[in-house]
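Lecture 7 notes: from sequence to structure.
We start with the chain below.
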Amino acid sequence: DNDDDDDDDDDEDDDDEESANADASSEPPQSQPQSQPHTEDDEADSIVVGPKAASKVRLETLVRASTPSERESVAMEEGKLRGLTVREETHGALMSILAGIKNHPGRSFVVGSDLRGLAKNDEGDDGGLDFVCDFTLLSFARCCVELGALAMVCDS
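Predicted C-alpha coordinates for the same chain:
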Protein backbone atom coordinates (compact mmCIF):
# COMPACT_ATOMS: atom_id res chain seq x y z
CA ASP A 1 0.00 0.00 0.00
CA ASN A 2 2.76 2.42 0.80
CA ASP A 3 4.30 1.87 -2.61
CA ASP A 4 1.04 2.84 -4.30
CA ASP A 5 0.84 6.06 -2.26
CA ASP A 6 4.38 6.99 -3.30
CA ASP A 7 3.45 6.45 -6.96
CA ASP A 8 0.45 8.73 -6.55
CA ASP A 9 2.67 11.46 -5.07
CA ASP A 10 5.07 11.12 -8.00
CA ASP A 11 2.15 11.44 -10.44
CA GLU A 12 1.01 14.62 -8.68
CA ASP A 13 4.54 16.08 -8.94
CA ASP A 14 4.61 15.23 -12.65
CA ASP A 15 1.23 16.94 -13.10
CA ASP A 16 2.52 20.05 -11.32
CA GLU A 17 5.59 20.19 -13.57
CA GLU A 18 3.46 19.72 -16.70
CA SER A 19 1.08 22.49 -15.69
CA ALA A 20 4.02 24.79 -14.88
CA ASN A 21 5.50 24.05 -18.30
CA ALA A 22 2.13 24.60 -19.93
CA ASP A 23 1.76 27.92 -18.10
CA ALA A 24 5.21 29.00 -19.25
CA SER A 25 4.52 28.03 -22.85
CA SER A 26 1.12 29.73 -22.85
CA GLU A 27 2.66 33.11 -21.98
CA PRO A 28 2.82 35.43 -24.93
CA PRO A 29 6.31 35.58 -26.42
CA GLN A 30 8.41 38.54 -25.37
CA SER A 31 8.38 41.18 -28.06
CA GLN A 32 11.78 41.64 -29.61
CA PRO A 33 13.03 45.22 -29.83
CA GLN A 34 12.59 46.57 -33.32
CA SER A 35 15.85 47.22 -35.10
CA GLN A 36 16.52 50.90 -35.37
CA PRO A 37 17.96 52.32 -38.57
CA HIS A 38 20.25 54.60 -36.53
CA THR A 39 22.14 53.04 -33.64
CA GLU A 40 24.59 54.41 -31.11
CA ASP A 41 27.34 52.42 -32.83
CA ASP A 42 26.48 54.09 -36.14
CA GLU A 43 26.67 57.47 -34.43
CA ALA A 44 30.01 56.57 -32.86
CA ASP A 45 31.33 55.62 -36.30
CA SER A 46 30.53 59.10 -37.61
CA ILE A 47 32.29 60.87 -34.71
CA VAL A 48 35.72 62.07 -35.84
CA VAL A 49 36.82 64.09 -32.79
CA GLY A 50 36.53 63.67 -29.04
CA PRO A 51 37.20 60.80 -26.64
CA LYS A 52 35.19 58.15 -28.53
CA ALA A 53 37.01 58.90 -31.76
CA ALA A 54 40.39 59.03 -29.99
CA SER A 55 39.90 55.51 -28.65
CA LYS A 56 39.71 54.23 -32.25
CA VAL A 57 42.94 55.86 -33.49
CA ARG A 58 45.60 53.33 -34.54
CA LEU A 59 48.94 53.66 -36.30
CA GLU A 60 47.14 52.94 -39.61
CA THR A 61 44.50 55.64 -39.02
CA LEU A 62 44.28 58.64 -41.31
CA VAL A 63 44.08 61.99 -39.54
CA ARG A 64 43.60 65.52 -40.80
CA ALA A 65 43.28 69.04 -39.42
CA SER A 66 39.89 69.45 -37.78
CA THR A 67 37.37 72.02 -38.90
CA PRO A 68 36.30 74.86 -36.60
CA SER A 69 32.90 73.21 -36.03
CA GLU A 70 34.58 69.89 -35.14
CA ARG A 71 36.84 71.67 -32.63
CA GLU A 72 33.83 73.41 -31.09
CA SER A 73 31.95 70.10 -30.81
CA VAL A 74 34.46 68.78 -28.27
CA ALA A 75 33.05 69.65 -24.86
CA MET A 76 35.56 70.19 -22.11
CA GLU A 77 34.79 69.81 -18.44
CA GLU A 78 34.38 73.13 -16.71
CA GLY A 79 37.66 74.25 -15.18
CA LYS A 80 39.71 71.77 -17.19
CA LEU A 81 42.44 73.28 -19.32
CA ARG A 82 42.68 72.33 -22.96
CA GLY A 83 46.16 71.47 -24.14
CA LEU A 84 48.84 68.86 -24.55
CA THR A 85 51.49 67.82 -22.08
CA VAL A 86 54.53 66.39 -23.86
CA ARG A 87 58.09 65.53 -22.89
CA GLU A 88 60.56 68.34 -23.41
CA GLU A 89 62.66 66.13 -25.72
CA THR A 90 59.71 65.59 -28.08
CA HIS A 91 58.06 68.99 -27.88
CA GLY A 92 59.71 70.50 -30.98
CA ALA A 93 59.02 67.50 -33.19
CA LEU A 94 55.41 67.08 -32.07
CA MET A 95 54.55 70.76 -32.40
CA SER A 96 56.07 70.87 -35.90
CA ILE A 97 54.02 67.77 -36.83
CA LEU A 98 50.85 69.48 -35.62
CA ALA A 99 51.76 72.69 -37.46
CA GLY A 100 52.51 70.68 -40.62
CA ILE A 101 49.08 69.03 -40.52
CA LYS A 102 47.34 72.35 -39.92
CA ASN A 103 49.28 73.93 -42.81
CA HIS A 104 47.76 71.29 -45.14
CA PRO A 105 44.06 71.38 -44.16
CA GLY A 106 42.84 69.39 -47.17
CA ARG A 107 45.32 66.56 -46.74
CA SER A 108 45.17 63.34 -44.68
CA PHE A 109 48.12 61.68 -42.96
CA VAL A 110 48.69 58.11 -41.73
CA VAL A 111 49.62 58.33 -38.04
CA GLY A 112 52.36 55.69 -38.08
CA SER A 113 54.10 56.54 -41.34
CA ASP A 114 53.34 60.07 -42.56
CA LEU A 115 53.67 62.15 -39.40
CA ARG A 116 57.43 61.71 -38.99
CA GLY A 117 58.04 63.52 -42.29
CA LEU A 118 56.32 66.62 -40.93
CA ALA A 119 58.75 67.02 -38.02
CA LYS A 120 61.40 69.03 -39.86
CA ASN A 121 61.28 72.78 -39.37
CA ASP A 122 62.50 75.46 -41.81
CA GLU A 123 66.08 75.16 -40.55
CA GLY A 124 66.07 71.38 -41.13
CA ASP A 125 66.08 70.64 -37.40
CA ASP A 126 63.88 67.64 -36.55
CA GLY A 127 63.08 69.01 -33.08
CA GLY A 128 63.97 65.79 -31.28
CA LEU A 129 62.44 63.31 -33.70
CA ASP A 130 64.91 60.69 -32.42
CA PHE A 131 62.85 60.59 -29.22
CA VAL A 132 59.54 60.13 -31.04
CA CYS A 133 58.68 56.43 -31.24
CA ASP A 134 55.50 54.85 -32.64
CA PHE A 135 53.90 54.86 -29.21
CA THR A 136 54.60 58.59 -28.84
CA LEU A 137 53.07 59.27 -32.28
CA LEU A 138 50.01 57.19 -31.44
CA SER A 139 49.55 58.86 -28.06
CA PHE A 140 50.03 62.29 -29.61
CA ALA A 141 47.49 61.60 -32.37
CA ARG A 142 44.96 60.24 -29.87
CA CYS A 143 45.33 63.28 -27.62
CA CYS A 144 44.96 65.65 -30.59
CA VAL A 145 41.80 63.83 -31.76
CA GLU A 146 40.40 63.79 -28.22
CA LEU A 147 40.97 67.54 -27.84
CA GLY A 148 39.69 68.32 -31.34
CA ALA A 149 42.95 69.59 -32.87
CA LEU A 150 42.95 66.69 -35.33
CA ALA A 151 40.10 64.64 -36.78
CA MET A 152 39.96 61.04 -37.92
CA VAL A 153 39.27 60.41 -41.58
CA CYS A 154 36.38 57.96 -41.82
CA ASP A 155 35.87 55.59 -44.73
CA SER A 156 32.81 56.67 -46.67
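Points to note: Residues 19-26, 28-45 have pLDDT under 50 and may be disordered. The longest strand covers residues 62-65.
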